[in-house]
Specification:
By secondary structure, the chain is mainly alpha-helical. It has a single domain, classed as c-terminal domain of poly(a) binding protein (Orthogonal Bundle). It is about 75% helix and about 0% strand. It has 5 helices and no strands. The longest helix has about 40 residues.
């Protein structure tokens, strides 16, 4: 009995994987097996890094807030603690934006935090 070869669905699947890995280096975009490995790895990295991006942005915001708080005579933890005691509910993303663009408003927030700490 003759050997059965992959038909339409397998061909479509191979084309889909090769299209996905277009632009990869060397055989990762040419050979199905290597391309499939590259595709699976890239999808894993994409899934993982969607979570890591949130972590990275929070770290960036904290660094920016800390730098601006130190210019106003506080460190980051004192600043955040003072804002919590003053019941100011502004998230770190907005605080970092204020620190980067509007120093006067951030100075007012820092003074409010200082007042609550003393």
């Amino acid at each position: 009995m003759p050997r059965s070869t992959p038909k339409v669905y397998a061909h479509q699947r191979h084309k889909k994987v090769l299209k996905f890995t277009k632009g990869q280096f060397g055989t990762r975009s040419k050979l199905f097996r290597r391309a499939n490995e590259a595709m699976l790895k890239s999808l894993f990295y994409a899934y993982r890094d969607r979570r890591n991006r949130k972590r990275d942005f929070r770290r960036l915001w904290i660094q920016r807030i800390n730098a601006a708080a130190r210019q106003n005579g506080l460190n980051y933890s004192q600043f955040i603690h003072g804002l919590k005691r003053a019941d100011v509910q502004v998230d770190r993303k907005v605080l970092a934006s204020i620190a980067a663009t509007d120093a006067a408003t951030f100075a007012k927030l820092a003074d409010l935090a200082k007042a609550q700490l003393s």
